[in-house]
Automatic annotation (TrEMBL):
It comes from Echria macrotheca. This is Acyl-CoA dehydrogenase/oxidase. Residues 258-409 form the Acyl-CoA dehydrogenase/oxidase C-terminal domain. Residues 16-140 form the Acyl-CoA dehydrogenase/oxidase N-terminal domain. Belongs to the acyl-CoA dehydrogenase family. GO terms for biological process: fatty acid beta-oxidation using acyl-CoA dehydrogenase. Residues 144-246 form the Acyl-CoA oxidase/dehydrogenase middle domain. It comes from the Eukaryota.
Amino acid sequence: MSAQIPIAVRDRVSEKAKKTLNVVAKFVEEECIPADAVFDAQIGTGDARWENHPQIIDDLKQKARALGLWNMFLPKGHYKESPGFTNLEYGLMAEWLGKSRVASEAVNCAAPDTGNMEVLAKYGNEAQKAQWLKPLMDGEIRSAFLMTEPQVASSDAKNIEMKIEKSGDHYVLNGQKWWSSGAGDPRCKIYIVMGKSDPQNKDPYKQQSVILVPAGTKGITIHRMLSVYGYDDAPHGHGHITFHNVRVPASNLVLGEGRGFEIIQGRLGPGRIHHAMRTIGAAERALEWMLMRINDPKKTPFGKQLREHGVILEWVAKSRIEIDAARLVVLNAAIKMDEQGPKAALTEIAQAKVLVPQMALTVIDRAVQSFGGAGVSQDTPLANMWAQIRTLRLADGPDEVHLQQMGRNENRRGQAVAAKINGQKTKAEELMQKYRVKKAEIGSNIRRSNL
């Protein structure tokens, strides 16, 4: 709640945001987390899992809107549609949303819709906003984001091969996509698709475009839904989709030909922060489950409660440190985004994107270990949490891509720091001569003390 806001950022959080944060926390703890089990039960089994969505979601949406919890993610000062919260303020709210499977959708702040709404709000024209942004912001429809392709190394987005070719007043799309998150939902009505419209352009970052493709357009085939460590995430799903001569109006192009990279970079920056803060929330919930387990009086291995075994309290302490440290990294990135925009905060965003999932996986794994066999089963939320967060080390760019870029950026300081250190050495030698002393030999003080 607002009392738990880190002291380092508390003066940057408005009273409005603090009050809303308290409402979010209460809504998640008292309404959403208990609803997670109902959601799973209402999904059902077999093909029916993909044919409708649980009623509990619509009921939660009504409660959320009545509480004023809706579309909090669009940052203040960047979008006219914003409810008035900064990236920092929404980040604190997103942490609570990450503790529940249904919470983000209940307040219309679920991926990939958030990123897609940001694309439409920032880059879409008025007609595109009226047709797609408004129903998305009203929670009437859902959307999917289609970028990754199975036949190429999509960690380098320049490799993307989906063809987007002009044909009169239409564009024709041919190719395939997978990990098309959200494509399984019957409420998904629009795909945001990235492909190549000018593959011969000498600038590899001007070859791509982004276009809006209505779900169900002739020529689209959804072949299967991919599972994540065995979880199919119905009805949301992650589709493997092919496009065969799919024709969409030229007016569906976003921003203009060759602007794809610009759009996608603008989309992914805020999304990474959202993922990171939700992941902090998941790590907090895992720690709570571990605390419950180690204090269970019925669990007494070797005659002691789990909390009485030394290594367990060490796990708890390390988890507390790691969560708190990771939170500050994410909030720092959010602050820089608020002050200078996502492009200026690329390094800070990348730090959060790499650090937070690794931290959360470690904390969740400790919680799993404390539960023993139950930890890897469906009897706790831990196994599913681990599976979902493990994908974040791949989503929005794999860790290695961000680490390589950060490493290159950091290494640019190499010559400057070498010059600084050599200058310090030279200054030290000058001081030695001035004070007529010689450099102390290693261990000389020890030898004298032993004489």
